[in-house]
Amino acid sequence: MKSKTVLAYFAAIVTILIWGETFISTKIVLNNGLLRPADLFVFRFLIAYIGMCLFYHKRLFSESLKDELLMSGLGLTGGSLYFLTENSALAVSNASNVALIVSSTPIATAIILSLFYKDERMNRGQIVGSAIAFVGMSLVIFNGEVILELDPRGDLLALGAVICWGLYSLLMKIVLGKYDIAFLTRKVFGYGLLTMIPYFMIFGWPNVSAQAMIHNSTVWGNILYLGCVASLACFLMWNWCLDILGTVRTTNLIYLQPFFTMLIGALVLREQITWTAIAGAVILIIGMYKAVN
């Protein structure tokens, strides 16, 4: 059991490392101008859904209509609505503001879960550790440049993304143990796609040139990576970690995402890392250690 716990921590950290890098891959794809953010989301989840259908096709539906509705909620909160609110927030607000608000996900998740499950309530050590980690994470995000340009629309949309992920964690806890992780993950992708239909009915369906896509290896290469690795593999690992470690401990590891994004940005994009960010990273790791123990 101890070895499984260690493996789960490792899997969660790898997942967060990959999710921290997806900002760069997403930026590369969108900068090419072939896809809107919503279109990219659909491509990601469509690739992941097809992959999951090939990997897991034992059953199509849940045991009851109630459970099927829960599955649609997973696809909505962890898929379509989460990505739409986060990307829309980035479009109208400062990136640092959005990153700071979205990175409060562990706190929001813990509060939402505590309303329904006593065993998922944070103890005093976890609360202190989360507070320390949040301070360190804030220093990493701002990286020596504190820019706060408050925009109620963007900040509310970012808060909406936080609440979506908290609700996703709550719904996943309800169905974990009742269904296979692979089945649950496939449902997230499937309903994530279905719940995008109202959006496209209002704002128009994806209009992508297949020829332009085929001849742009950078675009389709990153899309395949986002679909196969960042979506299919990472959602599978994350949902498994939620089952093994518990929702609060797993979600607390999200504090590491800005740290990984900073490192990848420095290595790939040659972005500068300030001493403020380094100090923040140290504080973040100390807080993380206390929060997950």
Short description:
The protein has helices at residues 2-31, 37-55, 65-92, 95-102, 105-114, 124-142, 152-175, 181-194, 197-203, 210-214, 217-245, 247-252, 257-268, 275-291. The chain is an all-alpha fold.
Query: Structural class of the helix and strand makeup?
Result: mainly alpha
Mean pLDDT comes to 83
* Largest sheet descriptor: none
- What oligomeric state is this? single chain
Order of helices and strands: HHHHHHHHHHHHHH
How many H/I helices?
Answer: 14
Radius of gyration: 19 Å
Low-pLDDT runs: none
What does the secondary structure layout of this molecule look like, with pairings?
Elements: H1 2-31, H2 37-55, H3 65-92, H4 95-102, H5 105-114, H6 124-142, H7 152-175, H8 181-194, H9 197-203, H10 210-214, H11 217-245, H12 247-252, H13 257-268, H14 275-291
Write up this protein.
The protein is mostly helical. The chain is built from 14 helices and no strands. It has helices spanning 2-31, 37-55, 65-92, 95-102, 105-114, 124-142, 152-175, 181-194, 197-203, 210-214, 217-245, 247-252, 257-268, 275-291. Helix 1 crosses helix 13, helix 2 packs across helix 11 and helix 6 runs antiparallel to helix 14.
